[in-house]
Structure formats: structure tokens, C-alpha cells
Amino acid sequence: MTKAIDLRAKSDDQLGEELGNLKREAFNLRFQAATSQLEKPSRVKEVRKDIARIKTLQNERSRSAAK
């Protein structure tokens, strides 16, 4: 699980790359769940929360830049 403090230290490009990686992982986890091959079900929740953290941070940055 990624901490918000660690994410705030990253640049916008790094956050975008991290978001892409997490979305890819979420897709793979959904695929594994559908085929009953999911080994760690709690990872799905962690990935979703990490995606939400990154999107929230990107939204905060875009709002502060718009002001």
C-alpha cells in the first residue's frame, strides 16, 4: 500500500505512470478473480484505494493550479 506522503513527493509524470501500473494490476486481479485464480483477495482493495489516492492528489494539484 502506498502512503499519501510518498505520493506527494512524486511528480505529475511519475503519478501518471504509477496510476497506469495500478490500473493494469487491477485489470489483472479482476481477471484472476473471474477465473478463480486469485491468491490474495485483499490486494484488490489495496489497489483500488491506491488508485483513489493518486486520483485525489492529481485532482488537488489541478485545482490548485487553476486558481
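The record above closes out task 2.4. Task 2.5 opens with a second protein, given below.
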Amino acid sequence: MSTHINAREGDIAELVLLPGDPLRAKYIAEQFLTDARCYSEVRGMYGFTGFYNGTRVSVQGTGMGQPSLSIYVNELFQFYNVQKAVRVGTCGAVQGDIFLRDVILAEGACSDSAMNTLRFGGLHFAPVADFSLLSAAHSAARKLGIEPKVGLCVSSDSFYDEKENWRLWAEYGALGIEMETAELYTLAAKFRRKALAVLTVSDHILNGGETSAEERQSSFTDMMKIALEAITQ
């Protein structure tokens, strides 16, 4: 039993979706899973297990930022035998040909975080997605009539970027800025698990425009469907 999830052995499936927002976890469980049961409410970070098309799936909130996600993913991998983890989150677009509500499949994650600096010292680790999950998500999106963008995201520790570092990331081809994926991919590499981030563009840093908190919580269903189809392949 882990400190922060506090679920019993067997409560959590080997396949887990990871929204940052715990209310998005609740929404996914209620709208997409059958026989869903809440296994954790510790610190209001909901976790549910149910079935998607007959396959047992869990959904666990992770909170905002890499340090918060790191706690939950470490515990999921170490104590609950989770084998596949797909982040379903939001990002801010930094390219002109990407629009609000577009879906991004993050094949890799850049970062300004100190977390991997502390891990690797002067070395540089490249956090990347699992190819089988990435391929499955791309195929699932196409079958659903969705044309996803595939490329790099940036996991930043700063939500309010006063120095506008996003401009440099954009110059080097990053598609969107978010706060968690680099740590998820790094932990998946360490524990030899499979991970992917499926992101919805919730605001546009370059062109302006944003979605509401309610929309981010419950209306970004395309990425939820893609993630569920991919993780259950």
C-alpha cells in the first residue's frame, strides 16, 4: 500500500489513464468506464477502476507539475504493477498551424525542470514515448476521424512564463507547453514501463485564445477516446 494513493493490492488495473485534474478522472470514470469504483480519495486526488470494452482500466489524477505527477507514477509503477500509463492532459500551443482543441501525441518531451538535472547531473536524458502506444494512439485517432499532431511537447515548471522561454522552444519545433510529460516518460524508462501523453490544446500561447475550466474538465473527449483505445490494444 502506498502513502499517497492508499489503495489496496489489486485495486488498480495494469492500464492507467493519468489526467492532472482529479475531476477529469471522475468524468472519465463516469462517462467511459463501466462498473467503475473509486479506490482512492486521498488529498482529493481521485482514482477509479472500471472496464472499457471489457478491459480493466484505471484512471488516476496526478495534480499539476512534474513533482506531483512523480509521486503518483512512482507509486503506480512500484506498488501497483502498472504496465501502461497514458497521460490525458492539456497544453498551450506555440505553433501557428495548431489550433484550440487539436490533439497532440507527444513523441518526446523537452523540459526546463531541475528534476532530471538532479537525477543525471551533467548528463542529458531524452524522455520519449513508447512507440507501440504512440502508434496505437495515432491509428485510433485516424479511425475516429481525428487528425492528431505528432511531435515534441515541453514540460515546464513555470505556468506563468515571464521570460517567454516558449519562443525558443517553438523555434526548435515544439508543438505545445505543458507541465508533466517529461517526468512520466523518464519514470517509464526507469521502471521499463510503457507511457504516452495525449494532449488537447486548451489555450494558444502564440495566437491567443483559451478554453474555460469547465471545458478542460469535461469536454475534451477526443483525447480520452484515443487514450482508452490505445491503452487497451
